[in-house]
Each structure stands twice: as C-alpha cells, then as structure tokens.
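re: the backbone from monday

yeah here it is again, tokenized this time
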C-alpha cells in the first residue's frame, strides 16, 4: 500500500524536476530558430558556394562569442527581472541613445524580412501542385504569421516554435546524411587565415552566424517566460540550467550552419559563373531537385520552416522589445497589447513594401555587415552593464575575457576594410562636422533663444527659413554619389526648421532646398523636391503635437520622413518610369538616408539639451550667489 502511494508521488516529483530542468528551453529554441533563419540561410550557403569550408574558423569565433553574449544577457535578465534594453539605458551618454539606435535598426531590419519571405515563398513554390505567383505566396505567409501573433500570447508562440524545431531538426539531419562532407576539408577550415579580398564576406558571416543585434531578443523571451520576476536566492542554480540550455541551442545553430555550408560547398563547382543578383539559395535548391530527388523536398520544406519560423519569432521579439522601449523610454501610455499589435501592423507594411522592392540577398547582406560592427559596440556595453550588477551576480573572468576579445575581433575586422573607411568614413566625417557646426552656432544664437522664449518675430522666422533652407541645399550639394544615385541629407534642414518654427517654417525651408534639387534635373527631380517640402511640414506638425522631444521620437520622425519620401512620393510622381529603375533608387537610398536623417535629428536634440543644461546651471549659480551676498549682486546690477 505504501509502495502504491509512494509511486505517484515519485512520478509527480520527477515530472516537476523535468519541468524545472527544461523551463528555459523554450526561449532558447525560439532564439535558435530565429537566428538560424535570419541571414544564416542566404549568407552561409553563399559562403559555401564561394569559399567552401575555408571560413569555418569564422563560424567558431562567432558562435563562441555569441554564446557568451547570450549567457550575459540571461544573467542580467534573471538577476534583475528586466530586459537587457532596460540595462542599456544605464550606459552613460545622451538619454536613451542606445535603445533609440537599436529601435531604428530593428525597424529597418523589417526590410530584410521581405527578403526572407520571398525566399521562403520560392522554396514553398516547388512543393505546391499548382502555379501560384511567388509574391502571393509571400503575402499569404505574412498574413498567417500576423494571425498567429495577433493574440500576443507567448505560450502559443513557444508551442508553435517547438513544433517547428522538431520538424526542422528532422529535416536537417536527413539533408546532412544526403550530402558529402569531407572531414579533412572541414578540419582545415578551422585554421584561421585572412584574405584581403574576403573582408566583406568575413564581416557578413560574423554578423550572420549566430545572429546580430537580434540576439538581444533572447532577453525579451526570457522576461516573458519568468514573468519579470528576478531570481535572487537561486540565481546560480538557474544559471546552470540556462548554461546547459544555451549549449543545446547553439549546438542546433552550429548544426544548421554546417548543413547550409555543406550544401553550398557541394554545389560550388556548378555555380562558378553565378550572378550576384541571383538568389543562390534558390538556385541551389533547383539543382538539388535535379541531383538528389529524395533529399530535395525535405531540404526545401526545412528551408521554408526555417525562414517562416525566423519571421514569426523575429517579428514577435522585435515587437515586444520596441513595445517595451516605447512604454518605458518613450513615455507612451498606450496599453501594451494594443501597442504590440500596432507595431506588428507597421512591420507588416514595411515587409509588404520590401516584398515588392526585391533583391532580398543584397538587403540581407548589408544588414549583416552593419550588424557585425554594431555588435561589438553592444558587446562592450554588456560588459559595462554586467559590472554594475551585485558582486555575486557578475560574470566570471573567463566570460569577461571572451566578451572583450570577441568584441575586439569584431571591431578589428571592420577596421581592416580600409577602402570602405576611406571611401565613406572620411567624407561622412567632413559633412557631419559641418552640420554639427551649423547646429552648434544656431543653438547658441539669439535667434534660437527667441524661439525658446516664444518671442520670435517675423524677421526671426525669415532667418530661420534661410538658415535651414541653406542647410537643405548643402545636404544635396554634398551628398554621396553611390552607384549613380545621390545619397543626401536634404530633408534634415527643413525638418529641424519645422520642429522649431512650425509647419510654415518647415515648408518654406523645404521649398528652398526643393527648388535647388529641382534645378539639377533628372527623372527624380520633381518627387524629391516635393518630398523635401513635405518633410518640413511633417517636422512642423510633429513639433507641435509630439512633445517633449526625445531621441526615440526624433529617430522615428527621421525614418518616417524618408519612408514617405522614398516609398510613397517617389513612386507616385514617377508613373511611367520603368519600375526596375524606381526599385534601384529605393534599394540604394532608403536605408542610408533614413539613418543619416535620424542621426542628424538626434544630434540636434543632444546639442540643444546640453545648452539648456548650461543655461540652467548658470541660472542656479547666479541664484546661489544672490542668496549668499545680495548686496554684491545689487552693486553689480547698478554698475
């Protein structure tokens, strides 16, 4: 009788221990699926096509570093009960600059998600019995993702992702068995070497293998899993579980990376003359159908699951992260669930636009290259955040060494690409210095003081228009010429004029810059001129309705102004122009112009806030002196 009573109790205890042991495995699976699909499929297959197994040493460095990165994120989240984005706000510097920057990157990365869905649609197309346009499949996939995420349930997300991971793991193993993997070449690939012609490929792989800034989303899912409750007394035990779970997750990432690299390497001889505009992963899958009929459907279905799963988890994680940032750092009071849905809808609009822009591999590669550099900055920031934790919750010396060396390597590879720095870095510094000089002088002028005190006259309005209209002209005159397209910051001046003086000031400054652009001619002259005026009006409206200004709000304004310019006004006012030419302009200008305009607005706010602090400090000193020696102050006033 006692045995019969004890047995159910033992089973219950065993179930509880198993549940506790695998409690954190859900967030790790979501992370593994997201980071393997995002950039990995395209970048890694292309690496196999062009270099075989020669860059496996890059894979090892990236995975070791990012394992340590994820471990540090988990320690902060479990120790404090907060997401890593809250920790990044503690970094010294302008208020919220880190989370503002990350928010911009996350929004712009949605352009790459259109590429993911297009590639996923290509894979699924091969399995469908009827002929359906690729774009229709991509849009239908996006609609299903939106429907799945609409409820905002983390529990539902975790169950779906675990099911997809089981299917994916089975397909990956089957694909690996169908491929020839030479052990000798694989072993030699772990020996580091640097080829000057491969710096960009190395940078792209560092950003793609094991994820980039999207690795920060692991903190969001951990926070959802724990309900935001900090682990104080049992943190060491919880971290041991997380350490093992992360090893499982990064083991899966390494396995999937090896499979995709092997696929590219197996078919490198068949793609010597591959065109850069061809989607190599899709070309490889077509070749698979002709060479390995049994393995091809499994690989194609696995690839679709991987990319669709990356889109599901990536959209969810970014939406949750931005929702938290907007509510915590941006002061937005919209209910969390409603804001989450609004962000998902905004993401869907960007993805739809990207689906029709095309050239997904180019967008994905550029995002990966930028990510490899930015990730080093966040790596050093994570070391700083970890050092501010209680002594017993900080990382070990080994963890600190891996983080410091890994961040340094990421920086070093970026610096090795000297041609890129000389071609774009030096000219950008020159233009940025001129913009900063104009803003610095203006902020300290009597004209700016008149607008702060609300006593500006019509003459002041005229000077404001002329100054920022001239800055708009400079933004066109000193723009970058990249592959025949002028990358400029013409809209920056009118937006700032609108923020300070209202819609009339912004429109007038935009008119000055727009007329100069129109005088240069070209088929984009009219839409670019009108878009500059619209940007000034938009700045004026925001300046009246979205106070107080914060880096995050101004960053969103900059991205929105350029999106309106390039995605709406340009296509509407160039009807009759070949669509391919419009797409070329969109691809070349949307990302850099959005970043430059957003950065310029944030710099203006930083200079303005710093000057206000100086004024406040001077007023405080004068008040203290008057309180201490009022007679002395009276004598000075008389003099």
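seq for it, each position gets an aa:
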């Amino acid at each position: 009788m006692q045995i019969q009573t004890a047995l159910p109790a033992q089973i219950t205890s065993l179930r509880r221990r198993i549940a506790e042991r695998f409690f954190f495995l859900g967030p790790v699976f979501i992370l593994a699926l997201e980071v393997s699909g995002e950039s990995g499929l395209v970048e890694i297959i292309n690496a196999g096509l062009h270099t075989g197994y020669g860059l496996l040493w890059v894979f090892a460095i990236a995975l070791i570093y990012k394992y340590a990165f994820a471990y540090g994120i988990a320690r902060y989240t479990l120790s404090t009960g907060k997401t890593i984005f809250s920790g990044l706000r503690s970094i010294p510097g302008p208020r919220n600059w880190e989370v503002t920057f990350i928010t911009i990157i996350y929004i712009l990365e949605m352009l790459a998600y259109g590429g993911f869905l297009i590639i996923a649609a290509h894979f699924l197309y091969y399995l469908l019995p009827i002929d359906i346009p690729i774009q229709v499949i991509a849009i239908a996939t996006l609609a299903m993702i939106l429907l799945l995420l609409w409820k905002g349930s983390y529990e539902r997300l975790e169950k779906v992702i675990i099911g997809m991971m089981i299917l994916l793991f089975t397909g990956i193993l089957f694909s690996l068995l169908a491929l020839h993997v030479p052990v000798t070449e694989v072993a030699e690939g772990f020996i580091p070497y640097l080829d000057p012609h491969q710096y960009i490929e190395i940078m792209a792989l560092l950003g793609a293998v094991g994820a980039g800034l999207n690795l920060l989303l692991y903190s969001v899912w951990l926070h959802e899993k724990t309900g935001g409750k900090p682990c104080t007394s049992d943190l060491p035990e919880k971290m041991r579980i997380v350490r093992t779970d992360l090893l499982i997750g990064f083991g899966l990432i390494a396995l999937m990376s090896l499979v995709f690299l092997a696929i590219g390497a197996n078919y490198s001889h068949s793609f010597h003359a591959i065109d850069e505009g061809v989607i190599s992963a899709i070309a490889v899958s077509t070749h698979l159908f002709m060479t390995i009929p049994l393995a091809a459907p499994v690989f194609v279905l696995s690839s679709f699951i991987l990319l669709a799963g990356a889109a599901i988890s990536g959209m969810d994680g970014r939406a949750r992260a931005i929702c938290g940032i907007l509510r915590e750092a941006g002061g937005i009071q919209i209910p969390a669930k409603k804001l989450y849905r609004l962000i998902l809808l905004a993401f869907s609009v960007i993805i739809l636009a990207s689906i029709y822009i095309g050239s997904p591999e180019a967008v994905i590669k550029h995002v990966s290259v930028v990510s490899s550099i930015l990730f080093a900055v966040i790596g050093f920031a994570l070391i700083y955040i970890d050092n501010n934790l209680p002594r017993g919750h900080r990382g070990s010396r080994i963890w600190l060494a891996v983080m410091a060396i890994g961040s340094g390597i990421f920086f070093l590879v970026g610096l090795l690409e000297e041609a890129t720095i000389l071609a774009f870095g030096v000219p950008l510094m020159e233009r940025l210095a001129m913009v900063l000089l104009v803003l610095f002088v203006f902020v300290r002028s009597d004209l700016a003081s008149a607008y702060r005190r609300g006593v500006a006259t019509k003459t002041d309005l005229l000077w404001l228009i002329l100054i920022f209209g001239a800055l708009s002209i400079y933004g066109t005159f000193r723009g970058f010429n990249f592959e025949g397209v002028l990358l400029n910051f013409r809209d920056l001046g009118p937006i700032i004029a609108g923020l300070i003086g209202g819609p009339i000031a912004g429109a007038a400054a935009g008119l000055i810059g727009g007329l100069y652009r129109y005088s240069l001619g070209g088929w984009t002259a009219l839409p670019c001129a009108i878009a500059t005026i619209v940007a000034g009006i938009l700045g004026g409206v925001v300046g009246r309705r979205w106070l107080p200004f914060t880096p995050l709000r101004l960053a969103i304004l900059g991205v929105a102004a350029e999106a309106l310019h390039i995605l709406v006004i340009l296509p509407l006012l160039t009807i009759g122009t070949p669509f391919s030419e419009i797409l070329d302009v969109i691809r070349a200008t949307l990302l850099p112009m959005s970043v430059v305009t957003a950065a310029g607005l944030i710099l203006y706010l930083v200079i303005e806030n710093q000057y206000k602090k100086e004024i406040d400090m001077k007023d405080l000193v004068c008040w203290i002196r008057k309180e201490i020696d009022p007679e002395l102050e009276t004598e000075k006033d008389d003099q």
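Confidence is low (pLDDT under 50) at residues 272-279, 417-422. DSSP finds 26 helices and two strands in the chain.
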